[in-house]
Known about the structure:
By secondary structure, the chain is of the alpha+beta class. About 25% of the residues lie in helices and about 35% in strands. It is built from six helices and 13 strands. The strands form three sheets. It has a six-stranded mixed β-barrel with strand order 1-3-2-6-5-4. Strand 4 (about 65-70) and strand 5 form a beta hairpin. About 15% of the residues are buried. Residues about 190-195 and about 200-215 have low confidence and may be disordered.
Amino acid sequence: MKTAFELNAEFRDAQGKGASRRLRHENKVPAILYGGHREPRALALDHTRLMLMLENERFYSTIINIKVGDVAQAAILKDVQRHPAKNAVLHVDLQRVMENEKIRIAIPLHFKGESVAPGVKKGGVVSHLRNEVEVSCLPKDLPEFVDVDLSGLELNQMVYLSDLKVPEGVEILELSHGRNSPVVSVHHARAEEVETPTAEAAGAVATGAPAAAAPAADAKAAAKPAAEAKGKDAKK
C-alpha cells in the first residue's frame, strides 16, 4: 500500500483531561487510532512534527504510515481539533486503513483553465462553491486530488459534481446519494449600488457645509429679532 507520509507515535495508557494536559506540556499531541475491526488505541504524537505535516494539503487526503517502534499501520486523518486561540493542535483522530476495504475521505479540488475560460474573457467572475469532494474507494485507487477544468466554461455556466472526472474505482458519495451539487460557476460581475447625491447635497459638499443645516440656520436667525421685539413690548 502506497503511503505519502510517515508519522512516529507512542502508545499511551493514561487518558483523561489531566493526562492529555501533561502530554501537551511535553510538546505531544494526544491521538486516537480506530477502525480496521480492532479496538481503538490511544497514541501520542510529536506536536512539532505534526504541525509541519498539517501545513501540507496532501496530508489530509493521502494514506499516512503510523509507526510505533517497529510496528507500522496505514491510516488516514479523520479529524483535527485545534486550539481556538493558539497555533496548536489539541487532539487528532486517525482511522486504520485496510487494503481490501473501501475508505471514505475528502479529496481537494484543483481548479485549472480559469484564465482561458470564455466566460472570464467576457468579463465574468469565477465563484468556487466548494474546494473538496468526499469519495469512496479502495486505498490503491485513492487520488491525491481531483481536477476541475474551467477552460470551456461560458458566462452563466456551472460545473457540477457529475462533470468531474475521477479515476476508475473512485465514487463521489453525493452522486451515489442522488445529489448533483454545483462546484464552480462563471457569472456576470455584480455592480455595486452607488447612491447619486442630490444637487443640493452636492452643492453643500462643495461649499463645505451640510445642506440640511441651512434651513435650520435661517430659522434661528429669523427667531432672534422676533424675540428681541417681544422683550421690548414687555418693558413698555
